[in-house]
């Protein structure tokens, strides 16, 4: 009986390490029709594989070849600020680009057809920001702005200088930035911290730095937006709409 017991125990641990494909349906109820370990089917009829056969061993391969399964492999912890993210722990940064193209638009022209303008509060009034209307993302960002407007001025200054849509690749890569899909926002660009300003490569050992207040971060996370300050490769001005990392059914029990 002994070997069987060991097998059962390790199988249990394994399932806890892998997130459930169903979490994509729960996170994007108006966009994703079904999902299993084979494929994900969108309500617009597009189908995507849940796993791809590209190698994903080295960090370079993970970041360049992530699939929908790997996209959930590092669980996002919407907690406090107590510990800096561990080495190469970037929940949300491992992305399967075809998924975002299937949801928000396959190219610049089709993405821009989905953009609408929302009002974003500033200390002197408000400004307009382009954001996608797909899946109600625009409504979540508008709601975030309204909540930030109620914070004290000492916190609100961190939501100044906001920029959203820009069709571009991530610096020094050929991967599209989430800003390209109209689902990301940068705040306080002159006062925040970016890992690339300190590190020569993805696998370099870098020190964590942040000045973005938790009050702003928590408002975003409440509405399905993750924060780049929870990444080892910190990008503390950056937030993006990634409800699959914040929906309860999507949160893996253990870190990989
Ligand atoms: Zn950004």
Task: Describe the SSE topology.
Layout: H1 2-17, H2 22-27, E1 32-35, E2 39-42, E3 47-49, H3 59-65, H4 97-104, H5 108-113, E4 115-122, E5 125-132, H6 137-148, H7 153-156, E6 184-186, H8 214-222, E7 225-227, E8 238-241
Antiparallel strand pairs: 1-2, 2-3, 4-5, 6-8, 7-8
Bound molecules: zinc ion.
The site of zinc ion has 4 residues, from strand 6.
Task: Describe this protein's structure.
- The protein has 256 residues and is of the alpha+beta class.
- It has one domain (12-250).
- It contains 8 helices and 8 strands; from the N terminus they run ααβββαααββααβαββ.
- It has helices spanning 2-17, 22-27, 59-65, 97-104, 108-113, 137-148, 153-156, 214-222, and strands at 32-35, 39-42, 47-49, 115-122, 125-132, 184-186, 225-227, 238-241.
- It has a 3-stranded antiparallel β-sheet with strand order 1-2-3. Strands 6-8-7 form a 3-stranded antiparallel β-sheet. A two-stranded antiparallel ribbon has the order 4-5.
- The longest helix has 16 residues, at 2-17.
- It is globular, with a radius of gyration of 19 Å.
- Residues 179, 184, 186, 238 line the site of zinc ion (ZN).
Helix content: 25-40%
Task: Give the termini distance in whole angstroms.
Answer: 29 Å
The count of strands amounts to 8
Strand content: 5-15%
Indicate the mean pLDDT. 90
Specify Rg, calculated over alpha carbons: 19 Å
